[in-house]
Design a protein that fits this description.
The protein has helices at 3-18, 78-85, 102-118, 140-151, and strands at residues 70-72, 94-96, 123-127, 155-160, 170-175. With 183 residues, it is of the alpha+beta class. It has a five-stranded mixed beta sheet with strand order 1-4-5-3-2, covered by helices on one side.
Length: 183
Amino acid sequence: MNSDKVEEDDSTLFSKMTRGVRPLNKTDRADLSTQRLPPHTNNREDGDNNLAGYDSTIPLEIVEPEEILFYLRNQLPHSTLRKFRRGELCSSMELDLHGLNSAEAATELQHFIDEAIRHEMRCFLLIHGKGRSSSSQLPILKSRVNQWLRQREEIIAFCSARQRDGGSGALYVLLKRNRSSSD
């Protein structure tokens, strides 16, 4: 396939995907500056500042409870990305972080990802909730998970789950393929 054809296909696909999209007006933008938490807080929801190796000095950007999350570290084939976003790549394994404070959740997430890698799992469901039960009514855990997953090199993508799997209260998480066999 020649490169002109690929660029034309990419351009056509991009045009189709963005049809009807308009830039945000200045008044349509959310002002999140008042919702940012300092990087070091010591309340029950946030736990201690030792968050299982995650960088807790990065200021936490609070995401909205219903916000759809999407992160892609590297390019993926279109068919793989489509299957991933539909939840078709996920194994039956899932991690539910409901009811945990940030320190507990960080530790559980760290261990779960390490185990997933050890068992050569490619994709899993991560349930973080929307923060409606928290005393602050802010999705602290959802925001932290959004931040933590971006810090792990093994995570190549994550996106909010389909409604049947938890919607904006859960994520599909895609891990790098293990290229070396250690067994």
